Structure formats: structure tokens, C-alpha cells
């Protein structure tokens, strides 16, 4: 497997637990069960363990890690947060110690060392990093890999058993496509990779039963499988265990690689937030994984309201296919809502640096979301497709006490763009986190962080994903079923 040169040596920013000023949500109440039904009631419990995985730093160089770990009032015994290496499977590397957070409630900047081989001619090597937290530090945890300036370029993903990616193939400008598989668990994982292109299902040997050992990373080059394709959809499914996955694509024109974020699993309704205007034509990539044909309606949610970018026409696509649809200007930074007769999933490629930046379908924010890696000039894009949303935006920097907060309102069927600003008292040019908290009574809220260079060059789009403080456990029944939240 041939490792690729992806992006300049980056950083990882981690926003963890207990951002007290930003996470003051009233937990949804559960209905009181009737007599004799106590065992059937759902239980709301605090999150006490969380994990993420960050892809290898290109070239195996060092990276920078920044933590927000708990609130200032959190005791030292409230939990633990750390990064631990996930070396390439089979690589002979020198052991590295975990890197831990030390100051609860503050954005702490740490450095992860470069990985060295154990051979006589020691050289740097690729390896991923696991991010884990326990106790109160696990609540509202988030992690991102960033540029040297502290701007997030890719979100470190949660491990799962079914992950989806969709974007251009080689004929669509992606000369190289690399898949990183990372196992943060103490048990091995077995992974099957399925690919759908605009020509249909791709049959390839060697992409089933991929073994990912505990606490290790496996990389797969997928370029040859998409050699004649304009569009490629990738499903990563585990038959044993779970993994986190990342996909990077390098433009045929060279330059830095673009990260392809994971999109939500196929559904009959999708929302893609954070689609900014650019100097070129954006493209909508859609995958229809089932055998039935899809009839898809597309609605644009803009600052001016809703409109249909394709008029009354539907997008009709065959089953088992992945397709590209060019987008006309949407009227400012917007979200796209897709409704379909059969499950589909989708993403948008916005031209920018390298191959461009990807916006993907996400779930609505529950409790709050955290985008850790921000610098001045970035914007937070908020969309409320089905009900007015009142939202608290809180910025948190490295400097003690350097926080700021504001409440904004997003009207029903509209998108609102809010500048992400460095809090007062923070050092000029330093990175900061943004916490997005829908207030009680708000309609469904979707969000993303968009960074541009100049007026129209899009640098990165980072989806805002829920960072939970509590979860609902299902009711207990007389069953041998086991559920792992």
C-alpha cells in the first residue's frame, strides 16, 4: 500500500468536555412511566467515555495538539484525556508515549512528536492518533487536525461500523485517493470496502476482510478502482469491531490534498449545511446504494429563504450508481435539503484550494456542537430548515478567561452566516474553539464552519457534529440483546 503526500504537516485541535458557559442546556425530560413500567423507561445518563481518531500527519512529522479539557472547576480526579499513537500495521516504529491534557478549562497547546522507524537509517513514518477521554472530560469532546496556523482542515472521526464518503473519481480530477483505517479499540477489526461509481458497482479483490489490528492504522490506495470514474462513493463497513476512517483526494493538478468528510448514512431526507459561493461551479455528488431508481427533490436554504435550484425538475438517478450534478449559484452561503423516494446520501464539492472543499450531509445538532480549530476570518453557517432556531455561539481561546458569547436567531427556512471572532483578551492570531448551542424550543439546527482566503477561495468546510454531554439508554427488557451506545 502506497502512502500519499497529503497536506502540510498539521495540527490537531481538541475541544473537550465541560465548556461550562457553552453547555448549559436543559436536558429533555423523560415521561414518568406508569406503575409496573419502571423497567421500560428510557434513562438519561452522562457521557463518561468518548473516542476519536485523527489521520496520520503527512510525512510522519510532528503535529500540534490543543486541548479544552473540562471546566475550570473540574477536579484533577474528574477524568483523563489523552492522545495515543496508532502506528501503521506491521511497521517497526519507536514507541511513543501518550500526550495528556493538563489544564482543565483552558485551551492547552501540545506537540505530538514525529514518528521514527527502528531501522539503522531511522526515518519519519506515518501513524494516526487516537483521542480518548473519560469521566467529565468525555462530555462535549471534539477533535480536529489543522494547519500550522491552527485552522481545522479535517475533523477527527468517531469509530463506527458503517461509514460513507462520496466525491470525484479520477476522471473528475482526483488523481490519487487514499483511505486511512484506524482502530482505537483493544480488539481487532475486519473491514469491507465497497465502491460505487457512475458506472455502477466496482468489483475488486483485496477490499474485503481487511484486518485492522488493535490500536493500529491501515492505509489503502483506491485510485486504481476509480480510474475511469467521474464520481466515486465509498462505504466502509466492519464485520468485526469498529474503525474510524478518513479519505483524502489529491488533484491531478498537484498541490495539497483535500479531505473528504464522512457523510451520513443513506436516508430519504438529507441536509448539507455550509455550502459557500466560490469562483467556480460547485458540484452535488449523490450515491444511490440500492437497486431501486431514485427521484430526488433539491431545495436550497439561503439567507433570503428557500428556493429550488433546479426549478420543479427532480434529479432522477438509477440504482447502484453515484452521480454528479453541477450547481448554479445558490444566492450566498446556503444549505441544501434533499428528499428522495429511496435512501441516498450526498456531498458538495466547492472549488477552492487544491481539489476544493467538501460539504457533507449531517444530522441536526443535539445539545451542542464544537468546532475546535478556528482563526480570524472563519464564519459559522447556521441553517434552520423546519422551525426558528435561537442559538448561543461561544468562543473559547487559550488565554484564561478569554471567552465571548452571543445569541443569534435563525428564521425558519433561512441560513445565517456569523463571523467567528477571537474572544477579548486572547492573543492576536491565536486559534480558538466555537461552541454552537441550540437553545430550548429551537427547531432543528444544522451548521458548519467555513474558512476562505480572500473573497472566494474556499480553504476548508468543517461540519458541526453533536458533542454530547448525556445520552439516552434504551429501556431494559427481558432479552439477550446488548446495546453499545
Distance between the ends: 33 Å
How many extended strands? Answer: 36
Instruction: Please mark out the parts with pLDDT under 50 across 5 or more consecutive residues, or reply none.
Output: 1-9, 17-37
Spatial extent as radius of gyration: 22 Å
Mean pLDDT rating? 83
Proportion of β residues?
A: over 45%
Judged by helices, strands and strand pairing, the structural class is: mainly beta
Shape summary: globular
Helical run tally: 0
Largest sheet: 8 strands, antiparallel
Helix content: under 10%
Topology, pairings included?
Blueprint: E1 11-15, E2 43-46, E3 49-54, E4 63-68, E5 81-87, E6 99-100, E7 107-112, E8 127-134, E9 142-146, E10 152-155, E11 162-168, E12 174-182, E13 189-197, E14 200-202, E15 210-212, E16 217-221, E17 231-240, E18 244-251, E19 258-260, E20 267-275, E21 283-288, E22 294-302, E23 305-307, E24 315-317, E25 321-326, E26 334-350, E27 357-360, E28 369-374, E29 379-384, E30 389-397, E31 403-410, E32 414-419, E33 432-438, E34 446-453, E35 457-463, E36 470-473
Parallel strand pairs: 1-4
Antiparallel strand pairs: 1-9, 2-36, 3-8, 4-7, 5-6, 5-8, 9-10, 11-17, 12-16, 12-18, 13-14, 13-15, 13-17, 18-19, 20-26, 21-25, 21-26, 22-23, 22-24, 22-26, 26-27, 28-33, 29-32, 29-34, 30-31, 30-33, 34-35
Amino acid at each position: 500500500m502506497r502512502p500519499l503526500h497529503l497536506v502540510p504537516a498539521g495540527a490537531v485541535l481538541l475541544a473537550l468536555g465541560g465548556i461550562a458557559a457553552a453547555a448549559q442546556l436543559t436536558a429533555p425530560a423523560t415521561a414518568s412511566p406508569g406503575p409496573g413500567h419502571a423497567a421500560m423507561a428510557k434513562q438519561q445518563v452522562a457521557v463518561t467515555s468518548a473516542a476519536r481518531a485523527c489521520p496520520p500527519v503527512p510525512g510522519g512529522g510532528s503535529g500540534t495538539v490543543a486541548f479544552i479539557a473540562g471546566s475550570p472547576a473540574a477536579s484533577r480526579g474528574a477524568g483523563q484525556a489523552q492522545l495515543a499513537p496508532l502506528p501503521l500495521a506491521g511497521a517497526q516504529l519507536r514507541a511513543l508515549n501518550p500526550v495528556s491534557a493538563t489544564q482543565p478549562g483552558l485551551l492547552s497547546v501540545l506537540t505530538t512528536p514525529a514518528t521514527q522507524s527502528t531501522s539503522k537509517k531511522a526515518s519519519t513514518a506515518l501513524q494516526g492518533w487516537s483521542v480518548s477521554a473519560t469521566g467529565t472530560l468525555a462530555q462535549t469532546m471534539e477533535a480536529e487536525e489543522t494547519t500550522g496556523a491552527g485552522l481545522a482542515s479535517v475533523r477527527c472521526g468517531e469509530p463506527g461500523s458503517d461509514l460513507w464518503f462520496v466525491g470525484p473519481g479520477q476522471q473528475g480530477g482526483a488523481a490519487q485517493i487514499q483511505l486511512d483505517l484506524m482502530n482505537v479499540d483493544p480488539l481487532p477489526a475486519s473491514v469491507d470496502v465497497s465502491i460505487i461509481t457512475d458506472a455502477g458497482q466496482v468489483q475488486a479483490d483485496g477490499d474485503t476482510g481487511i484486518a485492522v489490528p488493535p490500536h493500529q492504522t491501515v492505509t489503502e490506495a483506491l485510485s486504481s478502482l476509480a480510474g475511469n470514474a467521474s464520481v466515486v462513493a465509498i462505504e466502509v463497513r466492519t464485520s468485526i469491531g469498529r474503525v474510524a476512517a478518513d479519505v483524502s483526494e489529491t488533484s491531478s493538478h498537484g498541490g495539497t490534498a483535500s479531505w473528504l468528510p464522512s457523510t451520513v448514512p443513506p436516508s430519504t431526507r438529507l441536509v448539507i449545511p455550509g455550502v459557500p459561493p466560490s469562483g467556480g461551479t460547485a458540484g452535488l455528488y449523490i450515491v444511490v446504494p440500492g437497486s431501486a431508481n431514485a427521484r430526488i427533490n433539491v431545495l436550497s436554504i439561503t439567507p433570503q429563504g428557500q428556493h429550488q435550484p433546479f426549478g420543479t425538475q427532480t434529479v432522477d438517478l438509477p440504482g447502484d450508481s453515484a452521480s454528479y450534478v453541477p450547481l448554479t449559484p445558490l444566492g450566498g452561503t446556503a444549505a441544501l435539503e434533499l428528499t428522495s423516494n429511496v435512501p441516498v446520501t450526498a456531498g458538495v464539492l466547492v472549488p477552492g484550494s487544491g481539489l476544493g472543499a467538501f460539504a457533507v450531509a449531517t444530522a441536526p445538532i443535539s445539545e451542542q456542537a464544537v468546532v475546535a480549530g478556528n482563526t480570524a476570518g472563519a464564519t459559522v453557517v447556521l441553517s434552520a430548515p423546519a422551525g426558528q432556531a435561537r442559538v448561543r455561539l461561544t468562543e473559547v481561546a487559550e488565554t484564561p478567561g478569554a471567552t465571548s458569547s452571543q445569541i443569534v436567531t435563525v428564521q425558519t427556512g433561512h441560513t445565517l452566516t456569523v463571523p467567528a471572532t477571537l474572544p477579548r483578551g486572547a492573543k492576536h492570531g491565536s486559534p480558538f474553539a466555537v461552541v454552537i448551542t441550540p437553545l430550548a424550543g429551537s427547531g432543528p439546527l444544522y451548521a458548519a464552519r467555513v474558512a476562505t482566503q480572500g473573497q472566494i477561495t474556499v480553504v476548508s468546510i468543517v461540519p458541526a457534529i453533536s458533542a454530547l454531554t448525556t445520552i439516552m439508554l434504551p429501556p431494559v427488557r427481558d432479552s439477550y440483546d446488548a446495546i453499545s451506545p
